[in-house]
Design goal:
Order of helices and strands: EHEHHHEHEHEEEHHEH
CATH topology of one domain: Rossmann fold
CATH superfamily of one domain: P-loop containing nucleotide triphosphate hydrolases
Shape: globular
Oligomer: single chain
Number of helices: 9
Distance between the termini: 9 Å
Helix content: 40-55%
Low-confidence stretches: none
Radius of gyration: 16 Å
Strand content: 15-25%
Largest sheet: 5 strands, parallel
Number of strands: 8
CATH architecture of one domain: 3-Layer(aba) Sandwich
Bound molecules: adenosine monophosphate
CATH class of one domain: Alpha Beta
């Protein structure tokens, strides 16, 4: 299965992408995670990307298109893949089409803006394995410690409320039109993001059941 995962920032793409990846045994790639790694490592790309990310804006299309092109041409993706957070603009979607990659579905997780702001202020990320938690809705067993690998949890810089509001504006203006783009190709599947992670997971798995081997 070749899947695109869409949704507003904080809609739960990362959590669902990990679950789909495990069930289908296909790799998930998050352009956000790759950009954050580049920022941490201080690479040229990371330095370029950081100011856009801190402002809640999209990193220029050519940067993320380059990352994805390299990734999709690797052997890892030959049995399928999940793109978490790519494409995020029409030019990115057109670049993906131009790569000749066949997409089976574009799954959008729908969450109202007011819920997003509440969710992101409580979001905590594992510094070791990247797993995502929420202090209320998906709390780790021990506060600030990852259930999966035991590393400490942190709050992302771009989860500050003012940045979240910018990220939401960016999403509605530049990314959301992709729903029409994929609907026109008959590939759009929308599921409701729920309060409880397991309810969203059930909706996601139900929507993807027709791709089961
Ligand atoms: P995410 O972790 O997916 O929420 O991404 C965090 C930030 O990385 C976004 O707010 C953007 O600044 C940048 N980013 C991630 N994916 C993309 C993309 N496909 N296009 C442009 N910028 C991106």
């Amino acid at each position: 299965m070749n899947l695109i995962l869409m949704g507003a920032p904080g809609a739960g793409k990362g959590t669902q992408s990990a679950k789909i990846s495990e069930k289908w045994n296909i790799p998930a790639v998050s352009t956000g995670d790759m950009l954050r790694a580049a920022v941490r490592e201080g690479t040229e790309m990371g330095v370029k990307a950081k100011s856009f990310m801190d402002a809640g804006q999209l990193v220029p299309d050519e940067v993320v298109i380059g990352i994805i092109k390299d990734y999709l041409s690797s052997d890892k993706c030959k049995n399928g893949f999940i793109l978490d957070g790519f494409p995020r603009s029409i030019p990115q979607a057109e670049a993906l089409d131009a790569m000749g990659v066949k997409i089976d579905a574009a799954l959008s997780i729908e969450v109202a803006d007011e819920k997003i702001v509440e969710r992101m202020s409580g979001r905590r990320i594992c510094s070791g394995c990247g797993a995502s938690y929420h202090v209320v809705y998906n709390a780790p067993k021990t506060a600030d410690v990852c259930d999966a690998c035991g590393a400490s949890l942190y709050t992302r810089d771009d989860d500050a409320e003012s940045t979240v509001l910018n990220r939401l504006n960016t999403y509605h203006e530049i990314t959301e039109p992709l729903k029409d783009y994929y609907a026109a190709k008959g590939l759009l599947v929308c599921v409701q993001g729920c309060e409880k992670v397991e309810d969203t997971t059930a909706a996601v798995m139900g929507a993807l059941s027709r791709f089961e081997a």
